[in-house]
Amino acid sequence: ILGKHWRVSRRVWLPLIAAAACVAFAFLWFSYRFESQREVSGTLPRAGAVASSYEWYELEDGSIVELNDGAQLKYRLNKDVRSLDLLSGEAHFIVEKEPQRPFIVKARGTQVKAIGTAFNVSLRDDSLEVFVTHGTVELVSPVLSESSDETRVYAVDPPAKLTAGERSMVLLVGDSIAPLRDMPSGDALESILAWKHQTLEFEAAPLSEVIESFGRYN
């Protein structure tokens, strides 16, 4: 009798267990698909504002954004790409590694592409500076290919790889764009990232730059 009872119970319960497992798997799959396709966007520090001092943010993917005084950026994260536009100022990025979803920072026509690395981007009136603090990034910068009194036409440089410790600066001077590349060391290296420690350091800087920096922090 017990044997027959077990055989009957197993026939009843096994299909129910299998059906419940299918339902749970379908729920988890659709939840994953929804989350992976969901787009998240925003402005840091907030729409219409700029950083008033050092500010720190964690994005939805786990990447860290550090903003210097006067910085503002927009970001958009979806299943294909993590795209950020630096609108003003300076920011440092610590990128969560996701090889299938590149992390791209855009500033004045230049794109900095990373997968899992850390780098600093500084946008000024006449220049754009990219400094890699960890890993490797791809830098694509615009090049003036044609100019007239009314229009300017820009081409795009092939991607250039920058590794940790390297810096690239795009100087915008009149009608020309002159990308520079070097590897700062010593005091110059510390000065680049001094703002992350909420200090100000200057070396051979004009007095006007010093006054402007103090004015922002005061």
Tell me briefly what this model is.
It contains three helices and 15 strands. It has 218 residues and is α+β, with helices and mostly antiparallel strands.
How would you explain this protein's 3D organization?
There is one protein chain. The protein is α+β, with helices and mostly antiparallel strands and about 220 residues long. It has helices at about 1-35, 185-190, 205-215, and strands spanning about 40-45, 55-60, 65, 70-75, 80-95, 105, 110-115, 120-125, 125-135, 135-140, 140-145, 150-155, 160-165, 165-175, 175-180. Strands 1, 2, 3, 4, 5, 6, 7, 8, 9, 10, 13, 14 and 15 form a 13-stranded mixed beta sheet that branches. Strand 14 and strand 15 (about 175-180) form a beta hairpin.
SSE map:
Layout: H1 2-37, E1 40-44, E2 55-58, E3 64-67, E4 72-77, E5 82-94, E6 103-107, E7 110-114, E8 118-123, E9 127-134, E10 136-140, E11 142-147, E12 152-156, E13 160-163, E14 167-173, E15 176-182, H2 187-192, H3 207-217
Parallel strand pairs: 5-6
Antiparallel strand pairs: 1-4, 2-3, 3-5, 4-5, 5-8, 6-7, 7-10, 8-9, 9-14, 10-13, 11-12, 14-15
Quaternary state reads single chain
Number of helices: 3
Question: Approximately what portion of the residues adopt beta-strand conformation?
Answer: 35-45%
Question: Rounded to an integer, what's the Rg over CA atoms?
Answer: 25 Å
Can you give the helix content as a percent range?
A: 10-25%
Nearest-integer average pLDDT: 79
Q: What class would the helix/strand composition place it in?
A: alpha+beta
The sequence of SSEs as H and E is HEEEEEEEEEEEEEEEHH
- Tell how many strands the DSSP assignment holds: 15
Unreliable segments of 5+ consecutive residues: none
Overall shape: elongated
* Major pleated sheet: 13 strands, mixed
N- to C-terminal distance: 88 Å
